[in-house]
Amino acid sequence: MDARNYNNISALPSDGAIDLAALVASRPDSALAALLAAADLVLVINAAGRIDQVHVGSGDIDPAEVAGWEGDDWRATALPDSQGKIDALMNDAIAPRWREANHHGSGGELPMKWLTLPLPGNRRLAIARDQRVAASLQQRLVRAQQAMERDSMRLRQLETRHRLLFDTAAEPIFIIDAASRRVLEANAAARRATGLTAHALDGQNFAALVHPDDHDGTIAVLGALTASEQRHPARLRLAGGQSFAMSASLFRQDRDNRLLIRLTPLDLAAPAASEPLADAMERMPDAFVLTDDNFDIIAGNGAFLDLVGLARAADLVGQPISRYLGRPGIDLGVLTTALRDHGTVRGFATIVRSGAGDPASSDGEAVEVSAVSSGEIGQLRHGFSIRPASRDAAQAAGASLPMSQLTDLVGRVSLKDIVRESTDLIERLCIEAALNYTDDNRASAAEILGLSRQSLYSKLHRHGLGNLGDNDSSNDNNDSSGS
Fold first, then answer.
1. Does one domain contain both 18 and 98?
2. Residue partners of 267: CB distance under 8 A and separation at least 6
3. At 146, is the pLDDT very low, low, confident or very high (cuts 50, 70, 90)?
4. Domain contains 140
5. Are residues 200 and 315 in the same domain?
6. Whether residue 418 has pLDDT greater than 80
7. Is residue 101 within a helix (H) or strand (E), and if so which, with residue range?
8. Mapping DSSP to helix (H, G, I), strand (E, B) and coil, where does residue 56 land?
9. Which residues fall in a compositionally biased region of kind Low complexity (predicted)?
10. Residue 270 binned pLDDT confidence (cut-offs 50, 70, 90)
11. Residue 401, pLDDT score
12. 257: closest CA among 265, 249, 266?
């Protein structure tokens, strides 16, 4: 912008004050007067670079924001990153140009766009436009662009995930045009089911992929799906003869209706190699139960259900095996410790309690347990084979096994639990010895043991020894006659 285009600028006084308002009023037809009238802020800068006059135009600048500028160094009013631009404005010669600079204002940062013109007396006329509105709009534009980029990134990520799900789905999926019935997209499973490539499927009429006998029915189903929502899947066969259950969903895209068709195979797969083994385990006469690494039950066969008195296998799942197997306190600890240490256990004598009984009770049916662990760390499974034990075998095992394992339990089971279990074992053995010695005469056995008859009956019940039902009266009669 050439200073010579401004009328009579050389006629301005070389010293003294310049009345900018009078200049605009006296020469309204001049370019300079028009520029001054349109400016938001006009400064007169002296040769030393200080502000001699401040003239606030009719814009959005509040005079209070620049009230302290008069007499200040113009360069000092600018922010540090804009002070170099002020120096350039002071050195603009005959061809000045607009430069942007940020200044200190009483209300905060004040962005301005400046043009300087030389005045007589080595002074300069600085004309500015307020850039706050433009800066605000620019910031809003930047924020909008950033938001659009974030939304675009999220859409790309979402599309990638959906594409991955679509392509890796095990079931055949087609997207077809609802009006023409032509295939728009098909996943890898659909290509395998039809035996066609992606190029061959593109644009193919979906009805042409269906077995001729199901052609009319498929067209009718697709028409019904387009007209109204249909929740129940229809059955169809593809041209190769494989049967599927077809379900479809109607959606709208690019102002056209689309159908997403999902096919679920109906053909029964060949029996897995493990099914005969599972069938044999279910039919075996011995009880079998499978647990996870925490010894929570995963499955049990029918014999185990009979043993614990439950009707449904679902009632077992998730229950700890200690709910049914082992005397409280020590038996199951011995078994699980040996199983973790050695991987297998054979002929472990313990008891099985009824599912309806008290989990803390020591009563139950005597059994022998063989167990094995399989799998890797984190995926271990424990299988337990359980069979009823004869009374003599149970007594022998009960007498020998816990005693042989007591020292192994030190450090794994508290001394209180070891002593309690040992005391129960010794008490049981002494009662059985007394009954054998007196030929099951309970009155005599109670006398030998130094117990009252009622106390003996209570201990017999707790240890599950003898029949405390109708035979009690006959035993009592025998006791009386014997006495």
1. yes
2. 242, 243
3. very high
4. no
5. no
6. no
7. strand 99-105
8. strand
9. 468-483
10. very low
11. 45
12. 249
Q: Which residue, 209, 241, 265, sits at the end of a domain?
A: 265
Residue 91 resides in a domain: yes
At position 333, the amino acid (one-letter code) is G
Cα separation of 348 and 331, whole Å? 9
Q: Does 162 fall in a domain? A: no
**Token pair 């385990």 in the structure block, residue:** 281
What residues pair up with 411 in beta bridges, in sequence order? none
User: What pTM, to 2 d.p., does this model score?
Assistant: 0.37
Residues 282 and 256 in one domain: no
23 and 93, same domain (yes or no)? yes
How far apart, in Å, do the first and last CA atoms of the chain sit? 139
Q: How far apart are CA 327 and CA 330, in angstroms?
A: 7
Reference 476, options 448, 442, 450, 426; nearest CA is 442
Contact 343, 373 (CB under 8 A): yes
Residue 145 lies in a domain: no
Gap between the Cα atoms of 401 and 215, Å rounded: 72
Each residue's pLDDT tens digit, 81-99: 888 888 888 887 666 788 8
Identify the helix (H) or strand (E) that includes residue 350: strand 344-352
Instruction: Dump pLDDT digits (tens) for 347-364.
Output: 888 888 887 666 656 567
215: containing domain: 169-265
The answer to whether 263 and 245 are in contact (CB under 8 A) is: yes
Separation of alpha carbons 427 and 362, rounded Å: 13
To the nearest 10°, report the CA torsion of 418, 421, 427, 431.
-150
Query: What CATH number did the domain enclosing 335 receive?
Result: 3.30.450.20
- Given 72, 107, 130, the domain boundary residue is 130
- Tokens for 128? 């500015």
> Would you say 31 and 6 are in contact if contact means Cβ atoms under 8 Å apart?
yes
CB 49 within 8 A of CB 155: no
Q: Are 286 and 401 part of one and the same domain?
A: yes
CB 380 within 8 A of CB 292: yes
Summary mean pLDDT of the chain: 77
Q: Considering its fold, how many domains does the chain have in total? A: 4
- Distance CA(56)–CA(112), nearest Å, equals 13
CATH number where 433 lies: 1.10.10
